[in-house]
Amino acid sequence: MQQRHPPRIKRHQLPYYLQVFNRKTDQPIGYIGNISADGLLLISHLPMLVGGYFDLRIKIPTEAGIEWVDFSATCQWSRRDISPDSYDSGFSLVAPPARYLDMMDALRQYFSFDH
């Protein structure tokens, strides 16, 4: 019997530098591996709690200082990365705010070769 896989969501790969924080504690928990309107891949040093609900924040450097994007997400899966001491975790967003979608569009344009 052939194993069925869920449909893949088109995501935009990002360099390993956009840090994700726990919104309640302001502690860093990992980095964005890729992003879509529905979710993101988090690369971290610890596995994430599958099924857990997370209040998250991304801090974005701008010319005027630091802006942040707050959002909530649920961890769908977490597994060891091919890199030692790293884990990949897939998150689905809970009602992504407009600011998150704006950030995703800006990142897609910034990292696109279609300028």
Explain the layout of strands and helices.
Layout: E1 12-13, E2 19-22, E3 28-35, E4 39-44, E5 53-62, E6 65-80, E7 87-94, H1 98-110
Antiparallel strand pairs: 1-3, 2-3, 2-5, 3-4, 4-7, 5-6, 6-7
Organism: Ventosimonas gracilis
Protein name: Pilus assembly protein PilZ
Number of strands: 7
The CATH topology label is Thrombin, subunit H
CATH architecture: Beta Barrel
How much strand content do the residues show?
over 45%
Structural class: mainly beta
Protein name: Pilus assembly protein PilZ
Organism: Ventosimonas gracilis
Protein architecture, described:
The protein has one helix at 98-110, and strands spanning 12-13, 19-22, 28-35, 39-44, 53-62, 65-80, 87-94. The mean pLDDT is 82. A hairpin with a 3-residue loop joins β3 (28-35) and β4. It has a single domain (11-111), classed as predicted glycosyltransferase like domains (Thrombin, subunit H, Beta Barrel), CATH 2.40.10. It has 115 residues and is mainly β.
